[in-house]
Please model this.
Amino acid sequence: MALIEGVRINLGGREFVAPPLNFKALRQLTPKLAILASMGDVPTNDQTDVVLDVVLAALTRNYPDLTREELEDLLDLANLAKALEAIMGASGLERTTGEAPAPAATDSTGAISTGS
Model:
């Protein structure tokens, strides 16, 4: 089975390729994503539920046999933010933590012409 392109993440010592969320998952999860906006160092139960929903929705695109229970064993406070950032970034959504992505390389060698 070919994997959908995404960001490589290590969860519990296992390597995963985290693809972007598909539209179906995005539509289901959008109302819940606001819960993550105020996530601190120690997430609330509501926040961990949303993180599990987001990470599972993305990872099951490449790993359809992955269960929520198994994911709960793989996620921890050390990798939770990295996993969420990888998936949100792969999905083109604002990253919740970490550095901004590097600017894209360009071919430009001079000033931009305004055409006037």
